[in-house]
# Entry
Amino acid sequence: MKIILQADVKDQGKKGDLVEVSDGYARNYLFPRKLASEATPDAINAYKNREAAKARKLEEEKSNAAKLANVIKEMSVTVKAKGGAAGRLFGSVTGKEICDALKEQHGIELEKHKIIVNNPIRTEGEHTCLVKLGHENTAELKVVVEVL
# Structure
């Protein structure tokens, strides 16, 4: 019997999946617990529409991430930090500070965990950071640090 899962079921699938199970398992276990519903033609059609919408949304997210990666590769961000003599900073420049500067200067909002700072930025000058945009898209961002 074909069913559509209404919740995650161990060894069967995730919520929304269309799966084939035995009649007894469906009638005696899944249906009474409201873990699944019968796969009628209307339900199968709705399932196919949901899957197509998910695929379109995923493709759109991938293309947006690729476009944003191309934009980020071409730009640089200036971060102002407190520092002392010889261009040394008091502390280091963090991903959050870079995110704030990116939003303020270019209007691009990113989450702070998407910016990877490999080596702590503790000196004045130009540095590069890796920006993970998802869907296997990454970009290198130039960060210019100025001492106040």
About this structure: The radius of gyration is 25 Å. The CA atoms of residues 9 and 76 lie 48 Å apart. Strands lie at 2-5, 18-20, 36-38, 76-81, 88-93, 115-116, 121-123, 125-134, 137-147. The longest helix spans residues 41-73.
